[in-house]
Specification:
Length: 915
């Protein structure tokens, strides 16, 4: 019974320091609703209202777009509560209550859903509002805004294909032209009450003309229409594109918030703004944001007028500014994170309309996390949890080359909205930008301002440049989240969509011309400017910058130290050269998890010896060719062992099919024949013989070493001779030899026999003992199924998740492009299984193989070496199933370290919770 009545609660009220919900209820109330409740509870000034739960959204789509029957009653109770608190009435002709209808998904989806303000106004209530406010202009301004928003969002009066401007904006521009003929850039605030009345008339006519319907007069009809539109927008194109990009499941749904209006547009003692408790681009602890006097909130975000920095508020409304500073502190100490909040000032009084953990750049994320620990606001474990692992990529992203930038010419300045350096060819339209990017060009998307329709173009571009809009404009918001380089509000730019040109200080740039933007400084440069490595790379890899001279590096380094403190899962690297090894070690790798020995055969004249080996018909010819390869391979190992300074190195024996090493066109075959002094026919015949229908499943992996044991023998010799050599220099060496593509125990045994034999030969020759391990990759399902048997011989397993995914799914990675996109859209797979481990399928095999392996050999070493080893969700999964290490490319090592530390902290937290 209790459960049934609880399930029937669809509306959660908040107001006057009391709230049915709280900040932890984001799944049910959406992010906005949950935090409105939380802010109400902690006594912040929030206008009263109620939240319709996400369950209603789910119900709505499960029941042919209808509502549960209890909803209307509960909404009426919600409205009654607001009326009681405020002493106003919905639809009343004396003191009308006006409301905002606001969407609110669990995770904020910037710009995806539309808000409707001033709902409850009609031809009668507007007159009442004139009376109570004693402000005719204000009342009619509210009314025209309401018709505009409702007409757009609910009734669908929008830009038609081919139109450059929103139809309502066109009407406004038309009226302004009549009223202020000849004056450019007239602000909306200059239209007086009579003008606004005229606008209302024209807006209604526009609605009628476009939809054939009258604008609804009854406030309850208006409210129901608005609620339906919010739920409807959950399934619009833009929302779906966004959800796909950020892996937000469709079934989450959105909530709807209905909230009493407060007014920022009553005059010069009112205003509206957006602020961050710290700078979201750099992370610096400064009050950051912007506001507009005499405006309703949408104006700030929409870029209709250019807002002022929030610090200026101190001059014009010092009391309100002091209150905001107080709120800023309360927010951080309560939410323990940087907040992004929205406020409105009505006649000098501050109201809070929203708060959430602010989106920030990777750079800012690291700085804020580290500084909040110093300020004793959070502990170091929380700091580690606060930086999204994927975002470290941005911290490692390039900046402009210091010398190149000195000679580059600044053509405009804007706001630094997304840090980093980007250079590319300019495109003025999202579709064109996408096309150009798909054909391999580096692209900068240039717009007057961006809107959600531009999302695809923004994803495709290296960087985004806008002429209008502030730090909370759509472009800035999205750039921050995607980690795109962005400069916005570069007002000197004159963008002409029609002519596809950009004019600035007398120069004209055409579509396809190069520009460069610095999103850290907010500068725009003509032409292509060379980029340079991030400060972290300059310190660690290039060693061209000292640690003490780089705050960015110091913050990063502190974070990584905390990671080491938390971590159980080790992070190794995939490296085939001494240089890659050195880089990875600088990033904190604890060894090599995968050395692909075949990569060593592609360089210079090694490929010749390799080809000679492949073309050999007899064993002794093959051995002669292999003998030429041996010194190369040995030298590479010596280099890597030296760089590793005692850290372990997993070395995989030759894996790809031999035909990959041979030339395929006639000219190259002729040249090879000439070099090796054999006939062209012989070469082309061998290429032909080696052709396979299904190379991925063909003669590769250990199958090579089984048929040509002399290959494995040479490779083992190279490893051990190198080990003996480096050991002699006083450096410890820990080779771990890995046999690929094993499916049968016997395959592994045969290869292991060779390795042991060669090891003892080399030991004797060099008079030294070498300790090493021999293990296998688990990359075909059969190996996972009989892992207990395989573990009898294998001292370690390394999951080759690229091949394991291909073979388990029966899906070739290189051929999946034609269908995988559709699979993701239909949510057959939630994510690309080649990017993030398919945890329920492939992951289950990994888990099973781990358990079987440990049964036979309790101390068996377990790792993963597929590309997944650098992807945060996969890294966390590897931690949870108890692997010893993941391995990834050198530049992903910091990301994997952070993800590994987070997995360990999450596990400890979960254990504590259980107790
Ligand atoms: P979004 O999710 O796009 O940020 P919001 O629901 O936060 O949409 O609404 C956008 C803006 O509308 C807010 O920033 C605020 O300025 C204004 N707004 C929302 N609710 C109210 C309200 N109750 N009173 C006055 N303005 C409001
Ligand atoms: Mg908002
Ligand atoms: Mg493989």
């Amino acid at each position: 019974m209790a459960k049934a009545s609880k399930a029937a609660k669809f509306v959660y009220q908040f107001g006057k320091k009391k709230a049915d919900g709280d900040g932890s209820m984001k799944a049910l109330l959406g992010g906005k609703g949950a935090n409105l409740a939380e802010m109400t509870r902690i006594g912040l000034p929030v206008p009263p209202g109620f939240t319709i739960t996400t369950e209603v959204c789910t119900y709505y789509y499960d029941h042919k777009q209808t509502y549960p029957k209890e909803l209307q009653k509960q909404m009426e109770a919600g409205v009654a509560n607001m009326e009681k608190i405020l002493g106003k009435k919905f639809g009343d002709l004396n003191k009308p209550l006006l409301v905002a209808v606001r969407s609110g998904a669990r995770d904020s989806m910037p710009g995806m859903m539309d808000t409707i303000l001033n709902l409850g106004l009609n031809d009668q209530t507007v007159l009442a509002l004139v009376k109570v406010s004693k402000n005719e202009r204000f009342a009619w301004d509210c009314y025209r805004r309401f018709i505009q928003m409702y007409g757009d969002v609910v009734m669908g009066v929008q830009k038609r294909p081919g139109e450059d401007h929103e139809p309502f904006e066109t009407v406004i521009e038309g009226l302004k032209e009549e009223l202020f003929a000849g004056q450019p850039h007239v602000e909306d605030t200059r239209i007086d009450a009579e003008g606004l009345k005229e606008l209302v008339k024209r807006f209604k006519a526009l609605v009628k003309e476009r939809t054939g319907k009258e604008f609804p007069n009854n406030p309850w009809d208006q409210l129901r229409g608005a609620v339906g539109a919010v739920f409807g927008s959950w399934m619009n194109d833009r929302a779906m594109v966004y959800r796909r990009k950020y892996n937000i499941p469709q079934e989450w749904g959105t909530a709807v918030n209905v909230q009493a209006m407060v007014f920022g547009n009553t005059g010069d003692n009112s205003g509206s703004g957006v602020a961050f408790t710290r700078d979201p681009a750099s992370g610096e602890k400064v009050f950051y944001g912007e506001f507009l006097i005499n405006a309703q909130g949408e104006d700030v975000v929409a870029g209709v007028r250019t807002p002022e920095p929030v610090a200026k508020l101190n001059k014009v409304m010092p009391k309100a500014y002091a209150e905001l500073e107080r709120i800023r502190k309360v927010l951080e100490s309560h939410f323990k994170d940087m907040q992004d909040f929205e406020f409105t000032i009505e006649e000098g009084t501050v109201f809070m309309l929203q708060t959430r953990n602010g989106k920030r750049t990777g750079l800012a994320a690291v700085r804020i996390a580290v500084e909040m620990v110093k300020e004793k606001l959070i502990g170091w474990e929380q700091a580690v949890m606060k930086v999204p692992a994927e975002q470290l990529d941005q911290v490692l992203a390039p900046v402009f080359d210091r010398t190149a930038i000195r000679s580059a010419k600044v053509i405009a300045r804007g706001l630094p909205a997304g840090p980093g350096a980007a250079t590319g060819r300019i495109y003025f339209n999202a579709e064109r930008a996408v096309e150009a990017a798909e054909s391999g060009e580096k692209v900068l998307l240039v717009r007057v301002e961006t809107s959600p329709e531009d999302l695809r173009g923004m994803i495709a571009a290296e960087g985004i440049l806008t002429a209008r809009g502030g730090v909370s404009s759509h472009a800035a918001l999205v750039a921050r989240q995607m980690g795109k380089v962005c400069v916005c509000g570069a007002s000197a730019l004159q963008v002409d969509y029609h002519a596809k040109t950009l004019k600035v200080s007398g120069e004209t740039f055409n579509e396809g011309d190069y520009l460069s933007i610095d999103g850290t400084a907010g500068e725009v440069y003509a032409g292509e400017v060379k980029t340079a490595a991030s400060e972290i790379i300059q310190v660690l890899v290039e060693r061209s910058l000292k640690a003490k001279d780089s705050r960015t590096f110091q913050n990063y380094d502190q974070l990584m130290k905390w990671c080491s403190q938390a971590t159980r899962l080790q992070v190794r690297t995939n490296a085939d050269t001494p240089e890659q090894t050195a880089n990875a070690v600088a990033f904190g790798a604890s060894g090599i998890g995968l050395c692909r020995t075949e990569h060593m055969f592609f360089e210079g004249n090694r490929i010749d010896a390799m080809r000679e080996m492949i073309l050999a018909e007899k064993k002794d010819e093959r051995q002669a060719a292999l003998a030429k390869l041996l010194p190369f391979q040995r030298e590479d190992f010596i280099g890597m062992f030296t760089e590793l300074k005692g850290l372990p190195a997993t070395i995989r024996f030759l894996d790809p099919p031999l035909h990959e090493f041979l030339p395929h066109d006639h000219a190259a075959q002729a040249q090879l024949a000439n070099e090796l002094n054999v006939s062209v026919d012989k070469v082309s015949k061998r290429v032909h013989d080696l052709h396979e229908f299904n190379p991925m499943l063909g003669h590769r992996g250990c199958r090579l070493g089984i048929v040509y044991p002399e290959i494995s023998e040479m490779q083992a010799r190279a490893v051990f001779e190198a080990a003996a050599e480096v050991q002699k220099r006083g450096i410890k060496v820990k080779p771990e030899i890995m046999i690929p593509l094993v499916g049968f125990p016997k395959e592994l045994q045969l290869q292991i026999d060779i390795v042991h034999r060669v090891a003892s030969e080399v030991s004797k020759e060099k008079k030294t003992k070498i300790s090493y391990l021999v293990g296998t990759m688990i990359e075909i399902p059969r190996a996972a199924l009989i892992a207990d048997d395989i573990a009898k011989d294998a001292e370690f397993f390394s999951f080759g998740t690229n091949d394991l995914t291909q073979t388990t799914l029966g899906m070739s990675r290189d051929d999946s492009g034609s269908f995988l996109g559709r699979y993701q859209e239909l949510e057959i797979v939630k994510q690309n299984p080649f990017a993030s481990i398919d945890q329920t399928g492939v992951g289950r095999l990994m888990q099973m193989a781990s358990e079987l392996g440990r049964k036979t050999r309790p101390d068996i070493k377990l790792g993963i070496c597929g590309e997944h080893g650098g992807e945060p969700a996969s890294v966390k999964f590897c931690h949870r199933i108890g692997l010893n290490y993941v391995s990834c490319s050198p530049f992903r090592v910091p990301i994997a370290r952070l993800a590994a530390a987070q997995a360990a902290i999450e596990e400890t937290a979960a254990k504590k919770k259980k107790k």
